[in-house]
Each structure stands twice: as C-alpha cells, then as structure tokens.
Write a structure and sequence with these properties.
Oligomer: single chain
Shape: elongated
Number of strands: 22
Helix content: 40-55%
Distance between the termini: 102 Å
Number of helices: 16
Number of domains: 3
Radius of gyration: 35 Å
Structural class: alpha+beta
Strand content: 25-35%
C-alpha cells in the first residue's frame, strides 16, 4: 500500500468522523426519536390496567400489570413512584358549581352547575369522569413517553379555604428523588372561573434537557341538556380565539377538524347554553381540534377533542397557568371577565354567544340586552318582560311605520291615474309605460321607494331578535301561560307522526298564533297597497300569503319566546295600522299631491341622480326596441 493510498484512507476516516459529530442529535432529539416506540409500551401498560368503574369514592386501579420494580422503572422512568395507586376524589364547591377532582391524572373529573337543572329536572352535570379526560405527555430521561392520565397524584394537604372563601387543592405528582410536579386548583367564591397551575420542582433530573413544552390532550362528550335536541345541536360547537385575533368556530352540522399552527388563547367546548372553556394565561403555541357528531340514541350531541401544546419550565422557575370556565353562556357573566381589560388582553368570551354578525350583533349587545337586563331587575315574569320589550321597540319604530303607511297611501290615491296610463299605453311598450309612470311620480313628488326604506330600516331589528331569543339563557326553563320553557318549543299537541320540512312531531301554539297574525297582517297590507293588473301580480300575491306558512314550518321547533315575540309584534302592527288608517285622510293627501304637481309644473324640481339613471336606462331600452 503506497503513501497516497494510506493518506486517502486517513482523510476519508477524518471526513466520516467530522460528519458524524456535526450531525449528532441533541439530547432532546434523542428523546423525541424514541417517542413513537415508547407509545406502544405505554398503550400496552394502559391496556393491562385494572378498569375504573362506577362512581364510588375510592377505586383500586393499578396503572400497569408490571410488578417487578426494575420493569416498572424501565416503563415509567422517573415517574415510576406514581405509576400505581388508588383513585380518590376531592371536592371544591361554591354557591355556583361543584368541582370533583381525581388523583388519577390530577384532573377535573366532573362538574355540576348547582343553579341549573336539565330539561327533565335532573342535576345539570356538564360531564363526569367517564365523559371527559385531560392529560399531559411527559418524556423521561430513559426515552419513555408517559401521560399524566395514567399516573397517581397525592394531595399536599386537605382543601385550603382562605378568608375570602377561595378554595385551593394541590395535587402532587411524585417522581424519583426530590423532583415532583404540582397541579394546583383554586375555586373562587361565587365564580365559575377556576385557576389551574402546573409547577415543576427540579424536573431536569427526570426529564431530558431542552424540554420547554408539553403536549396536552383534552376530550369531552357533550350531553343533551335541553328538550329540543336538534335545536340544541345547532348551537353546539368548538370555538376558539387566536391570541391577537377574533373568535372563530368549527362546524355545528357535520364532523370537523382543524389544525391551528398559530398561537391560540382559549378553546371552548360549547353547548347551546353551557360551556367548558380552557384559557391559557400565556398561550397555546398550536392546537388540533376535532368535533364529531354523536348518534341520537346515545343522549350525547357531539364528542370534542383538543390536542394542545403549552409552554413548560421543568426547573420550576416559571409555572404554567390556565383558567378554566365551567358555566352558562350568559352575556353579562362572560363579558364581566373583560372588565378593566382592553386591547389584545381581552378574552372576548361573550363572543361564543351567537348574537348575530355585524349590525345585528350590535343591536343585541347595545340595545336589546341592556333593556332585557333592566326589565328583569324589576319583573320576574319573562313573558311580561318580552311583552314590555316588544312595546318599547314598536313605539321606537312607530315613526318609520307611520311614514311607510303614508307612502303606501300616496301610491294608493295615485292608482286611478296609473291605471289611465296603463290604459293608454299597451303592455307591449313597457318602457314607455314605465317612463310615463315615473314622470307622474316626479311631478307629484312621490318616490316609489319611500315606502320600502322604513321597512328596510326595521329589518336589522327583526334579524337581531331572531338571533337573540335562541341564545338567551335567561329564558331557559322560564314558563309563561302554556309554555313551560321559553327557550324551546311550546308543544300543545304531540303528533303520532313526523311532518317533514322541519315541522316535527308536535304543534307549537305560539308559532300557530304567529302564523295566523302574519296572514291577517299580510291581507291588511295587500289591501293598503296599490296594485296593478300586471303579469305576475297574482303570483306575487300568493307568495305573500305563502310566507307565513313557510314560517310555520320554520319556527315550529324554535324557541317559543321568539314565536311569542313575533306574535305580539305583529299583533301590535295590526293595531297600529288601524289607528293610522283612522287618522290619515287620503283625500287630503291627494289634494296635497295635486298642489305639489301644480307647483312643480311652474318650477320643475331638479331630478335626482336615481331618476336620471332610470330615465337613461329607459331611453336605452327604447332605442334597443327600435333597432329590433
């Protein structure tokens, strides 16, 4: 072997050694490399664990069938001291909620809202130990991946209650040596918000260096709490808020999943009237969310799952802190958590209440809800509150209603002259007929759109109320007349069959009354509206009568409070129409129009931009007809 060959081998050896050193993985990368291999072992240990059953206060459940100390240490690493134990439960309770904590996993195992009941008068439990789970993934120094849900915590002491009534329980996850992790829960007095913190102590001896985050898993099944399952299901979804952005939500009507790579502030497992919300005091660096529909016979609406990544300091210098909200979707309760907070620091939890988008939500937030809360301070009957709310709204809108009626009256008194135009100009010359009609309106100072504008201005309020009533938890289980619950349908008759198109298998009386009053109001409006014998006029008339019947099918399953509101509002509109009709002199209106025409003939008014554009279109149509 010559000198050059030996030198070549030496250089190759040096290159290989240098390359291996440059690409040598870090300790964290080594730990994560064994992640998938370790999952199989942990899952095998879980499968061998004694199943937890029933709801007794103490349950024996080995987390693994491994009895040999060496094998236990190999499977759980530094967490082996907490791998076996007995499941025990601890209670934190105030005037509003009862929180049950389990030492297995150190988690919230069940939540009861003490001031609410289910539709069949049972205690309202958001979830129990079988329906929800929460765990954190730990990586050990011997490259094992352990989930906190399979480990047993020990209370540092009994529940501590301070002078303000705040209750605190600290559950400790012991590891080898003097290392441990504390899960601390604090329930304030008279509050739905729970504080939750994770604080490590010298965990760098148990976990690999470089670990600065934890994978968190949270799942829950959403119980059916209300009488109308389809309606409740429509308002149930996972909602979430980015750190510096608005609230978004997942689909309510189908299975859905989302990967959120950006920082998330909170995730809400939402029902129609109640929610469980997990809030990171810092942020979740990423999240994977999944919502799955449940079959009707299960008595669950949906199954929710969230895989989250949260910061973690194994040295214990900086704890990982959360807040957990278990309570009603009530606007004033949720909005109170942003009191004194501004900008990106606002939680905006009240955004989970579907008040409508844009102007509809503003009307509800700044007009309807304040009025509703004001009346409820003095009146306990919510049927009377809705009546009073309707009266106030109709009084406020009365000027628009009056203006709309007067505009219709002007069109009505001009009908004989419009009929003359139609008699002179055949229907084949539609452009000429339309131009002559618009000339008449211009001479007498009448706009055909003036009657539409007041009605259009009232539409946002109608849509706002459509969003408000189904979302108002204040109406839940509040009775009025024959309706036992204004937040759901008022069934006066159960049918032995199901009527399609959303009607269902029952008859709602408030919905029926709303339909009848709408038909009467439609007939009254048709009588007050000037109509001509134009093609399609008869079809339009039938469509006007068909709308109330469509509402009958649409609202039969809706909140009876909403149908009651529309019924009262329409009834008041009918009364207002008769009152206005009695006070408006149509002969006087006609005389005023003639006087206006005489005045305009001497001093023609400047045409509006709309009229000029309309006349231009008419001229273009006439020219096109001539070319044909």
């Amino acid at each position: 072997m010559d000198k050059n060959t030996i030198l070549g081998f030496v250089l190759i050896a040096l290159i290989v050694l240098g390359f291996s050193q440059l690409n040598k993985p870090s300790e964290k990368e080594i730990a994560l490399k064994h992640y998938n291999d370790s999952i199989a072992l942990v899952e095998q240990n879980k499968a061998q664990a004694t199943p937890v059953a029933g709801s007794t206060s103490t349950k024996t459940a080995d987390s693994t069938a491994v009895t040999d100390t060496t094998k236990l240490a190999d499977a759980f690493g530094g967490f082996s001291p907490s791998a076996k134990g007995q499941e025990k439960f601890y209670t934190l309770e105030n005037e509003l909620i009862k929180l049950t904590l389990s030492n297995k996993g150190g988690r919230v195992s069940s939540v009861q809202l003490k001031k609410y009941r289910t539709h069949d008068s049972l205690p309202l439990v958001l979830f129990d130990e079988k329906e929800s789970s929460m765990g954190f993934t730990f990586v050990t120094n011997n490259n094992r991946v352990i989930n906190s849900s399979s480990l047993y915590f020990e209370p540092v002491s009994s529940v501590i209650k301070d002078a303000q009534g705040n209750q605190t329980l600290i559950l400790r996850l012991k590891t080898t040596g003097d290392s441990y992790i504390d899960f601390a829960y604090t329930l304030p007095a008279n509050n739905y918000m729970v504080s939750f913190g994770i604080k490590a102590n010298n965990m760098t001896t148990v976990m690999p260096a470089g670990i600065n985050s934890l994978d968190m898993q949270w799942t829950s099944k959403i119980r059916q709490q209300e009488k109308g399952r389809k309606f409740e299901d429509r308002y149930s979804s996972i909602e979430y808020k980015y750190v510096a952005d608005d609230v978004e939500k997942m689909s309510e009507s189908k299975d859905d999943q989302k990967d959120l790579p950006n920082k998330v502030k909170w995730v809400a497992f939402k029902d129609q009237f109640f929610s469980s919300i997990l809030i990171a005091n810092e942020d979740f660096s990423s999240a994977k969310l999944k919502s799955t529909l449940e079959k009707e016979e299960t008595n669950y609406l949906k199954s929710y799952a969230a895989d989250l990544v949260v910061g973690f300091d194994p040295t214990g210098k900086k704890p990982t802190t959360f807040r957990m909200y278990f309570g009603p979707n009530q606007f004033k309760v949720l909005a109170a958590y942003d009191k004194g907070v501004s900008g990106d620091s606002e939680l905006k939890l009240n955004k989970i209440i579907p008040l409508g988008w844009g102007i509809f939500g503003w009307i509800n937030q700044f007009a309807i809800i304040p009025m509703f809360n004001l009346f409820s301070q003095f009146i306990s009957n919510f049927g009377l509150i809705i009546l009073l709310l309707t009266l106030v709204i109709k009084v406020v809108l009365f000027p628009l209603t009056y203006k709309s009626y007067v505009s219709s009256a002007k069109m009505r008194v001009l009908k004989p002259e419009i009929d003359e135009i139609h008699a002179k100009i055949p229907a084949e010359k539609a452009a000429e007929r339309q131009k002559a009609t618009m000339d008449l309106y211009s001479k007498v100072g009448v706009s055909p759109l003036s009657g539409c504008v007041p009605s259009l201005l009232q539409m946002p309020l109608l849509f706002a109320m459509f969003s408000f009533f189904p979302a108002a938890i204040e109406l839940r289980q509040q009775s009025f007349l024959w309706a036992t619950d204004l937040s759901t349908y008022d069934s006066i008759m159960h049918l032995p069959f199901t009527i399609p198109f959303g009607f269902g298998d029952h008859v709602s009386l408030f919905c029926l009354l709303m339909t009848v009053t709408n038909i009467v109001y439609t007939k009254l409006n048709m009588a007050n509206t000037a109509t001509t014998d134009q093609p399609g006029g008869a079809m339009m008339k039938w469509m006007m009568y068909l709308m109330p019947l469509m509402f009958l099918f649409m609202f039969n399953n809706y909140a009876s409070g909403l149908s009651y509101y529309y019924f009262i509002a329409t009834l008041i509109s009918i009364l207002q129409t008769y009152i206005i009709r009695a006070t408006v002199d149509e002969k006087k209106i006609l005389a005023q129009l003639h006087a206006k025409r005489n005045s305009n003939s001497k001093n023609p008014p400047k045409k509006s931009g709309f009229m000029e554009r309309l006349e231009k279109m008419q001229r273009e149509q006439q020219q096109a007809q001539k070319r044909k």
